[in-house]
Amino acid sequence: MTVLVTGAAGFIGYHLCEALLARGETVLGVDEINAYYDPALKEARLARLEGRPAFRFQKLSIADRAAVEGLMAGAPEIDRIVHLAAQAGVRFSMIDPYAYVTANLMGHVVMLEAARHREGLKHFVYASSSSVYGGNTKMPFSEEDPVDRPVSLYGATKRADELMSHSYSHLYGLKQTGLRFFTVYGPWGRPDMAYFSFARAIARGEPITVYAGGTLRRDFTYVDDIVAGIVGVLDRPPAGDAPRLLNIGNNRSESVSRLVSLLEEGLGRRAIIEDRPRPAADVTDTFADISAIRALTGFEPKTPLDVGIPRFLEWFRGWNAGH
Predict the structure, then answer these.
(1) Distance CA 321, CA 323 (A)
(2) Which residues are identified as catalytic?
């Protein structure tokens, strides 16, 4: 049988495909490979997957209903779906909101329809985000906390996805788990994220923009830990029809200033810092309560920031030298 992974050329999607292939799964990956960030990075990830006998790839947009229906019709062996494809980025949702409506809302509905029409589908796992917690101040964030006041359109679309998924579980008995990811980082990561863009600027002797004096805090989660959690959840579909939502993070909130210090140490250069006020779409703090996913799967993040950042930088030096 086959796992369908949407967003297979993306950061988390690529690493997930690697892990699934390593344990002997057959994987069908899809991605539209858009230009939100350098498509060369997406193509490079994909090149590491293509050519393996258990992997095949189809370029398409998840918001293209006809294309997805055609894909599903031609792949009757799909029995699990991990839906990671989305328009990412909190601040970019203020620049091009329509991209989020297309990918995150229409795309999610298209994938829900594909899933509910697939007989024998064991599990539909999809990416949500810590952004659904908005400006909540109670720490750590728990799945039982209110999530009705998002502070970014991106967060609003991810909460909308959760609500649509809830209705599909209720109406059609679709077995689903939504994963609220917390600031995922690591090798082959996204250039738009702070750790990557900071590393590139520091290496080039260019200034970095830090908000609120570096006091903003994030639950930085290493990609290998995230992937282990996804696989553990994928193997454990809900027993009943009730949809499931789980935090998946490092269970530790650390300041952006600490991130900068680790990058400076690893790169052997001081950052040129330009301090600015916190943007309205950025939250002050994120911190994941992971007791639910731990109880379900035994999930235990193993990679603290001072281990994960050197691993990222080891990859980054090679990539940055050629790009």
Answers:
(1) 6
(2) 154
Phi, psi for 253 (deg, rounded to 5): -100, 125
Euclidean distance between CA atoms 178 and 136, whole angstroms: 19
- CATH domain 2-185+222-250+289-302 topology: Rossmann fold (3.40.50)
CA gap 165, 252 in Å, rounded: 28
**Beta bridge partner(s), residue 182:** none
- Which sequence spans correspond to the domains of the chain? 2-185+222-250+289-302
Q: What's the confidence (pLDDT) of residue 90?
A: 87
Length in residues, the chain: 323
String of DSSP letters for 116-179: HTSTT--EEEEEEEGGGGTT--SSSB-TTS-----SSHHHHHHHHHHHHHHHHHHHH---EEEE
**pLDDT tens readout for residues 26-77:** 999 999 999 999 999 999 999 999 989 999 999 999 999 999 999 999 999 9
What's the pLDDT band for 323 if we cut at 50, 70, 90?
confident
Q: What's the pLDDT tens digit per position in 122-139?
A: 999 999 999 999 999 999
